[in-house]
Design brief:
8-stranded mixed beta sheet
Length: about 525
């Protein structure tokens, strides 16, 4: 590999203008993230403090190894849901080190709506389960939740059930779940500690029961108090639901850290052995390079050399299929094969990427897909030359590939181009977006324009006159709706990604993602679907 030289002139007006535009988008991101860090109302937080409780983020900090990295996931889930509990739902979750072991940590926000699970939170929990399974990560639940949010019960019910099924499946595969109960874990929420491999309960605070005293009285006419039904002392001494009885919150967290020590050791596929050399160019320059206006072209190599080790990579077929850059490189010492868009995907670009995916599978190397494309090239000439066949080859290769995939959206990501670049529906291990990203079936202009053409053709076939005023109204409404739904804020709210990130933090996010996927054996595939020629 050799270092690549940047041609970016940071003194140019176009660079400075773009930097200013991207900085505004990053500021908007920071505002959203700040809202997501709210842990409840002042009153609810004050009540928790009065009871000597830590807040969710404080519990995570106590659990993690001191000064270690923590990769927070889906912090803006549900942010546009009108009936939800706010960005991020009622959990704080991510991947971090506990006694030098990578773990997935999920902490209920007991001070936000009592930790009740709204729809977005239920989706987030399912996604966290996928991550734990795919990457063989132990899960540590820091529990304080009233269970499903009843007004949301019709949308939460099946997701909640699926999360318990997945806990059981992970347990069967030897991927443990540790639950630490600090307060309520009631109704369906009782099955979180109940389904866990290890359960720790805090003395005189944890309450784990399927039905509280009022419901028991209504159902059976039996009178019982909280401790008799589900107190930590009872579960420790009588029911056996608790495996460990903690004196207080710090003791509970200390026990969880000790349990992690007893787990079967991870079997990393590889660990970086050589000193890591940082990129030769400043990550801050990414704000001047990543296009705020997605109609502007950018050489994706300029982005890569501000992310990868020593700004060096080995490019594959440099002069062929030039709208796709394929290369081998390292990020924080971890080998990775990169497929990055440099615009529209032509047939030869798709063919190059297809071959490159096969090579990555032969060498058991994870793939990083960097999205900035409006999709596959269209038009008579390209259709006649078999654009569909070439695109299908690439989609087959992505679908059949068994090395870990990580996706990074840095601009446009539309239509089948999104699929071919391992968008959300193709289940990458991790997917992160920049705050300028737009994605969907097609752009808002194209979508509303297609609708107009179809309407006019329909009117002509029926020999009817077009109502221009009405058509414009419908077209404008469709444009605005499509634009809103293509925005990164809509996408992250719906969990189309695992987080929107500041471009300057890209290396940090990718480093942690690669550390996670390298935490287990990597084995490529020799089997793919039929490559149409």
């Amino acid at each position: 590999m050799r270092p690549h030289k940047s041609t970016i002139k940071t003194t140019k007006a176009s660079y400075k203008d773009n930097y200013a535009e991207m900085e505004k988008l990053v500021q908007e991101l920071q505002q959203h993230l700040e809202k997501s860090k709210s842990q409840g109302t002042e009153a609810s937080i004050a009540r928790a403090r009065k009871r000597g409780k830590f807040l969710a983020r404080e519990r995570i900090a106590l659990l993690l190894d001191k000064d270690s990295s923590f990769l927070e996931l889906m912090p803006l889930a549900g942010m546009t849901h009108q009936s939800g509990f706010g960005p991020g739902g009622t959990t704080v979750a991510g991947i971090g080190y506990v006694n030098n072991r990578l773990c997935l940590v999920n902490a209920n926000l007991g001070t936000r709506k009592g930790g009740a699970v709204d729809y977005a939170t239920s989706l987030k929990i399912l996604r966290l389960g996928e991550m734990a399974l795919e990457n063989k990560l132990p899960t540590i639940n820091l529990v304080e939740s009233g269970g499903a949010n009843l007004p949301d019960q019709d949308r939460v019910f099946n997701n909640y059930g699926a999360s318990f099924r997945e806990m059981s499946r992970r347990s069967k595969l030897g991927i443990p779940t540790i639950s630490v109960v600090f307060g309520n874990a009631t109704a369906g929420g009782a099955y979180v500690p109940g389904m866990s491999d290890y359960t720790i309960m805090q003395k005189d605070a944890a309450k784990v029961f399927l039905a509280g005293p009022p419901l028991v009285k209504m159902a059976t006419n039996e009178i019982a108090n909280d401790e008799e039904l589900g107190g930590a002392n009872m579960h420790s001494r009588i029911s056996g639901v608790a495996d460990f009885l903690a004196e207080d919150e710090q003791d509970a967290i200390s026990i969880a850290r000790d349990v992690v020590k007893t787990l079967k050791p991870a079997t990393p596929h590889a660990t970086p052995t050589t000193p890591v050399v940082s990129p030769r160019y400043s990550a801050d320059e990414l704000l001047g390079i990543v296009p705020a206006n997605l109609k502007r072209a950018v050489d994706v190599r300029e982005i890569l050399i501000r992310i990868v080790d020593n700004s060096e990579f080995t490019e594959f077929k440099t002069n062929y299929g030039i709208t796709m850059v394929c290369c081998w490189t390292k990020i924080n010492g971890y080998p990775v094969a990169v497929i990055a868009n440099n615009g529209v995907i032509f047939a030869e670009a798709a063919q190059k990427a297809t071959q490159f995916i096969q090579l990555a599978n032969k060498s058991n190397t994870p793939l990083l897909f960097v999205h900035n494309t409006t999709g596959f090239m269209v038009g008579k000439r390209y259709e006649q030359n078999g654009m569909i066949n070439s695109g299908a080859q690439l989609i087959h290769a992505v679908s059949g590939s068994t090395v870990p995939h990580i996706s990074l959206l840095i601009g446009n990501s539309y239509g089948a181009g999104n699929y071919a670049m391992c968008g959300r529906s193709f289940q990458p291990r991790f997917l992160f977006s920049f705050p300028n990203v737009q994605s969907g079936v097609m752009g808002a202009e194209q979508l509303s324009g297609v609708m107009e053409i179809v309407k006019r053709q329909s009117a002509a076939s029926l020999n009817k006159k077009v109502n221009e005023k009405e058509l414009k109204k419908v077209k404008d409404a469709m444009y605005q709706d499509a634009k809103q739904k293509a925005s990164v804020w809509h996408a992250t709210s719906e969990l189309w990604d695992d987080g929107v990130i500041d471009p300057r933090d890209t290396r940090k996010y990718l480093s942690m993602s690669l550390a996670t996927v390298y935490n287990d054996r990597i084995e490529g595939s020799d089997a793919f679907g039929v490559f149409r020629m």
